[in-house]
């Protein structure tokens, strides 16, 4: 089974790397009901709330960028396949020149460090929003919260420490350069420094929409549905609706951290108060 899906954006080669997959339980989702979830799953021809864990490789004349890096060994056999996906794409960790973290949740950055806390990509800088560093870098903020938040903070802190002398902090401006060919789309809410990315070369564009959806069968048709991982559910919903409106309005191809296959590059179209996936 292949773990990669590739397309070109101008002269840039973009590859979705599937780190793994799992299923969510209905209780994780906000502003909905089991009846609505069952109805949306039936409409999508699905029986379970499936999700992927994706990372993104961008190759061009200015270097090799990896956006997010999967969950390493934290989720057991459900994920942790990024090394195999990179090998299938023909890229060694030493060749990656720029890492970009859409945010510092474990399923996006655990693969950036070894179990011992060393940088898994020894020659790469790490770009992320300054707001994300400020939030997760403050251990006192999480004192007494217990798991999983304290563990998530410790992992985020380990990632920040591993790349401490190679951090590139973004200010949170729209279209701020994040890597060669990539500009930031701030999407605060899921986490304070959560962002998407616009990949462009000439007139060609592709959007990496971060974690605006964790379950596309639910949250694309009804953007009001949140997920329990959102730090600020109201802001996350606003970001999701803003991003989906932009994607549909501008007819932009996109992918994301939890977008399903088979090709992992999709378009959305307006459909009533929500959206549908274009055929």
Give structural notes:
With 279 residues, the chain is of the alpha/beta class. It has helices at residues 34-44, 82-89, 106-109, 130-136, 139-142, 149-162, 216-219, 233-249, and strands at residues 4-9, 12-24, 29-30, 49-60, 63-67, 98-100, 125-129, 167-170, 177-179, 182-186, 195-201, 204-208, 226-227, 254-255, 268-271, 274-277. A seven-stranded mixed sheet has the order 1-2-4-5-6-7-8. β15 and β16 (274-277) form a beta hairpin. The radius of gyration is 17 Å and the shape is globular. The two termini are 24 Å apart. The mean pLDDT is 97. It comes from Acidimangrovimonas pyrenivorans.
Concise summary:
Helices cover 25% and strands 29% of the residues.
Mean residue pLDDT: 97
Order of helices and strands: EEEHEEHEHEHHHEEEEEHEHEEE
Strand content: 25-35%
- Let me know the CATH homologous superfamily of one domain: Ribonuclease Z/Hydroxyacylglutathione hydrolase-like
Number of strands: 16
Q: What's the shape? A: globular
CATH topology of one domain: Metallo-beta-lactamase, Chain A
CATH hierarchy: architecture of one domain: 4-Layer Sandwich
Q: Specify Rg, calculated over alpha carbons.
A: 17 Å
Point out poorly predicted stretches.
Answer: none
- Neighbour order of strands in the largest sheet: 1-2-4-5-6-7-8
Structural class: alpha/beta
Q: What percent of the residues sit in helical stretches (DSSP H or I)?
A: 10-25%
Largest sheet: 7 strands, mixed
């Amino acid at each position: 089974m292949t773990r990669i899906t590739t397309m070109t954006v101008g002269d840039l080669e973009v590859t979705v790397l599937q780190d793994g997959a799992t299923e969510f339980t209905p209780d994780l989702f906000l502003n909905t009901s089991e009846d609505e979830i069952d109805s949306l799953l039936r409409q999508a021809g699905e029986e379970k709330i499936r999700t992927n864990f994706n990372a993104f490789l961008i190759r061009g004349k200015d270097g090799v960028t990896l956006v997010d890096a999967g969950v390493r060994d934290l989720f057991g056999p459900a994920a942790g396949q990024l090394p195999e996906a990179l090998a299938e794409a023909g890229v060694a960790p030493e060749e990656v020149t720029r890492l970009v973290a859409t945010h510092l949740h474990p399923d996006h950055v655990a693969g950036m460090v070894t179990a011992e806390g060393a940088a898994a990509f020894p020659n790469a800088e790490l770009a992320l929003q300054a707001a994300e560093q400020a939030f997760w870098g403050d251990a006192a903020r999480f004192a007494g919260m217990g798991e999983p938040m304290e563990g998530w903070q410790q992992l985020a802190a380990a990632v920040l420490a591993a790349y401490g002398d190679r951090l590139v902090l973004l200010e949170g401006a729209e279209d701020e350069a994040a890597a060669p060919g990539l500009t930031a789309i701030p999407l605060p809410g899921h986490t304070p420094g959560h962002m998407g990315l616009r990949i462009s070369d000439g007139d060609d564009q592709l959007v990496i929409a971060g974690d605006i959806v964790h379950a596309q069968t639910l949250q694309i048709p009804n953007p009001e549905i949140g997920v329990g991982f959102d730090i600020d559910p109201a802001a996350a919903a606003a970001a999701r609706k803003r991003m989906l409106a932009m994607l549909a309005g501008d007819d932009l191809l996109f992918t994301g951290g939890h977008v399903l296959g088979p090709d992992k590059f999709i378009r959305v179209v307006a459909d009533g108060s929500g959206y549908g996936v274009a055929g």
